[in-house]
Amino acid sequence: MGQMQDTSARKQSRHSRKMTSSDTFKFPKFKVKQKLTDFGLGRMDAVENTGIYEGKKTEVIIPDQLVANLATNNARQIFSRVAGLNIWENDGAGLQLNIGGRGLDPNRSSNFNVRQNGYDISADALGYPESYYTPPMEAVGKVQIVRGAASLQYGTQFGGLVNFILKKPVQDKKIEIIFRQSIGSFGFYNTFNSISGTLKKFSYYTFFQYKRMDGWRPNSELNSTTFYTHFNYQFTKNTSLGMDYTDMRYLAQQPGGLSDAMFKENPRQSNRERNWFDVNWHLLALHFNHTIDSSSEINIRVFGLLAHRYALGFRPNRVATIDNNSDRDLIKGDFKNYGIEIRYLNHYQIQKKDMVFLVGTRYYNGFNHSIQGIGSKGKDANFNFVNTSNGINNDYTFPNDNVSIFSENIFNISDKFSITPGVRLEYIHTRAKGHYNNIQFDLAGNIINTTRTEENRNDERKFAIAGLGLSYKPIKKLEVYSNVSQNYRSITFSDMRITNPSQVIDPNLKDEHGYSFDVGLRTKSTKLYTFDFSGFLLNYNNRIGEVQFYDANNRVLRLRTNIGRALMLGVESYIESDVIHLLQPKEKALSGIVFINMAFIHARYLSGMQTSIKGKTVEFVPLINVKSGLRLGYKNFKASLQFTYLSDQFTDATNAVEGGVSAVVGLIPAYSIMDAGLSYQWRRLKAELSLNNLSNNLYFSRRATGYPGPGILPGDGRALFFTLGYKI
Length: 728
Known about the structure:
Blueprint (H helix, E strand, L loop, with lengths): L3 E5 H4 L18 E5 L5 E2 L4 E2 L2 E2 L5 E4 L13 H4 L6 E4 L9 E4 L10 E5 L2 E2 L19 E7 L4 H4 L5 E7 L9 E9 L3 E12 L2 E12 L8 E15 L2 E15 L6 H6 L10 E18 L2 E18 L14 E23 L2 E23 L16 E21 L4 E25 L5 E29 L2 E12 L3 H4 L6 E3 L6 E12 L5 E22 L5 E23 H5 L6 E19 L15 E11 L2 E10 L2 E2 L16 E2 L2 E12 L2 E8 L7 E5 L6 E4 L4 E9 L1
Parallel strand pairs: 9-12, 26-29
Antiparallel strand pairs: 1-2, 3-6, 4-5, 6-11, 7-8, 9-10, 11-12, 13-14, 13-39, 14-15, 15-16, 16-17, 17-18, 18-19, 19-20, 20-21, 21-22, 22-23, 23-24, 24-25, 25-27, 27-28, 28-29, 29-30, 30-31, 31-32, 32-35, 33-34, 35-36, 36-39, 37-38
């Protein structure tokens, strides 16, 4: 049932006694076969590669062990075992990942530091940390998730780290080819093909994916391609150099949002056929790994991004307004950034007790250009401005620089108890240079006057954040852990300037800061059961959010500003067990795995910019968040059933219930969904069947403030998908 992995003797002895300079041992060559857990969720080790995770709340998802719809990147299924995540559903093909947790906005996972193979993949990790690219889950070996404490090693943020580790080259073959073809409801088609192998010191892994879909609603067609290649050269047993290149691009028609009344009438309707979204993502990274001696190693990552995202459409404040074929709104964002991150890890001893020291530094440079103005009147995906002299709403460049130094150290006080302090020093320099225009139109929609205002903003910050982790292992398979860490999040350039017909941005926005605290009890590397019970506290100062207000013309608008101080308290629990093997240890062919994932979160504003906000529920926080499921296996056959439930949640700090004409704020009613899946492996052939939203519930998980809305974005109805894979 489980997968097998080769682990070198050197890695197995990481925590053993370190050799002195006078020691001259020659280890015999051998391999250890270590059986991975048969569950879809694991934990990170105290030390992995050049990272320290002792005392931190961590999760590791292994997609290949799930009976889930990997072809559509179905986040509801893939992340079902991670407690407390709030998942927004943006499209039926999984082009974008929208996850948040503990009261953090899920929009494009912008409150997590999202990485691929250890390097950033978002538009701008500091100035615009939105992830328009999500790696195909068919290519992902594992997903590492580290909660808020990741701010010390992976940059300043409240959510933590999400790191997609793509599959590695096969070591025992010169060439291995995998073909996966998927078809499904609403015109879905996906082809995923990979090639991998090792030739002496050279290894490689490459895949290509093409995906298309018509969509559950009209005007929802999309197509995307993703190409990835990885090469690695092992100069010596201690030194290697690798390269990754990713090319992703997609074009999606967006059906727009609905008002509350439209959703009740018919959630499948769409009154937008001229809205388009275009994304082009190019990532390049170099990895250098060197083991200096038996106790120390260094890792250097150099990475860069060249990308754009263009949004075009008719998006008035009243979402029920019929498209009058007037000029469309066009926003073009171009992103150029690069960085280098160096890590040094050393194992040493104090009084014969093992210690681990990590120090690293990072330099990051971003140069982004955002321009918004009048687009064409046509229906096609024409991303050209029609009036570049008077029809530009705003035109800005956003250069930024970031230099940081971070360090953590595991102090093993005894064989059972460790303390891990850490610190991060930050220098952040963000700038915004450009202009915005006040454009006046006549009743026929013609420009009669344009007033230009120049703007130049410059902000430098220097600060330190710190954290402390504790770990106590009373017995071999059990751990009590606790971690407290300061968090910081700078304002993004979309907070600085964007033109939206229903939104006003506070020009005096301040950076957000606070701290997070975790304490929990969890198992470690058990084959029959696993659990993690934890409590957390998240203190969030200067939280940026939105409140409704009335302008001089009595129009309802949204003000994006520092709402106030929020406090989130919660309990997160996860338990999974192979019930059949617990009851029948000698049973070999049959397995029955049950899991339940529950989070209960109390989130309130302790103070606010308006007295009425104090005591209100924080946005995007359902009080109850439950995901549970069952997986049955008999030899090479597996079947799964999953249930998801989220209670009511609000979308703005005033806790508005009705969405009004724009429907961008208001209640997201409680919803529940059931998913089912089947898979069968026969030699080199594998067949998978997935039935999403089994009971065909009508629901929505988000209200979009801009693209791809504005308004309510309904979740997809019942859908059937079939995948056939073959390995050569």
